[in-house]
């Protein structure tokens, strides 16, 4: 018999293992899950993490939360995973039934979840429960050791002649850059507005930026890279490490409108590859919407290899 209840304090690691076993391409650690829930509640959002038990054993987890970069008080995001050996035995359905009841109690308008097209059970599970597929996303991976930077030597010279430099958060902090955190927040707020997404972008508050980006324990200060022109910040990319993977993960890469199409994003990516090589990371992973043609083209040229697409499924209430 399957029972569902909120996760208990000693169960975060087990909940994360259940999700990661079901979605090995997107692993979580227990601290990751706990931190996300604490952040969400600290921002005044609604969030909960539930576990499914088969007897005394955790066999699956489900969580709902809200997207701070596309916030709407009645729209939610779903994570759900069941250990493969316990799938098709009712745990996923029981988790969804409990989450659905919670969401109806919150007056939810809709919920979204990403599911890979090649997942053995997720797409069918979602469709049977009224979810409708929409925008597609690609996660891509770069073999750091195999990357050859030689073809890009001319790009570095061109940008250097223009006066463009790439500096890290470590360097910016060491230089005592005035109002640095506020300027980084302003840069991210600028470059993220045109990123394709399933829901309209909403402003990212400084609190969210400070806690979720600068305060992320996986952020590599040497891998938070900013393109500068004189005193202006004109582009950025970020790298994050994880306790459950030896890969590095790319956060937002973006360039201000007046500098797009001039190689700045490529230079940022090249600098990030150098950081990954210095850290001994074998792989860099990134994700992009299928209609983000400029960034996908950059990644393809650099040698990123795409995984099967993930689909954003939405369920309306």
Top keywords for this entry?
Aminopeptidase; four-stranded antiparallel beta sheet; 10 helices; eleven-stranded mixed beta sheet; 317 residues; 15 strands; 2 domains; alpha+beta
Q: How would you summarize this macromolecular structure in one to three sentences?
A:
The chain is of the alpha+beta class and 317 residues long. The chain is built from 10 helices and 15 strands.
Fold and architecture overview:
With 317 residues, the chain is of the alpha+beta class. The chain has 2 domains: 2-130, Gcn5-related N-acetyltransferase (GNAT) (Aminopeptidase), CATH 3.40.630.30; 140-309, Gcn5-related N-acetyltransferase (GNAT) (Aminopeptidase). Helix content is 34%, strand content 29%. The protein has 10 helices and 15 strands. Strands 1, 2, 3, 4, 5, 6, 10, 11, 13, 14 and 15 form an 11-stranded mixed sheet that branches. A 4-stranded antiparallel sheet has the order 7-8-9-12, sandwiched between helices. Helix 1 crosses helix 2 and helix 9 crosses helix 10. The two termini are 28 Å apart. The model has no long low-confidence stretch (mean pLDDT 96).
Shape: globular
Beta-strand segment tally:
15
> What portion of residues is helical?
25-40%
Number of DSSP helical runs: 10
Name the average pLDDT.
96
Protein structure class: alpha+beta
List the helices and strands and how they pair.
Blueprint: E1 2-6, H1 12-22, H2 30-42, E2 48-54, E3 57-65, E4 75-82, H3 91-105, E5 110-116, H4 122-128, E6 132-143, H5 153-162, E7 164-168, H6 169-174, H7 180-191, H8 206-214, E8 225-229, E9 232-237, E10 239-242, E11 245-250, E12 254-255, H9 264-279, E13 283-289, H10 293-302, E14 305-306, E15 310-316
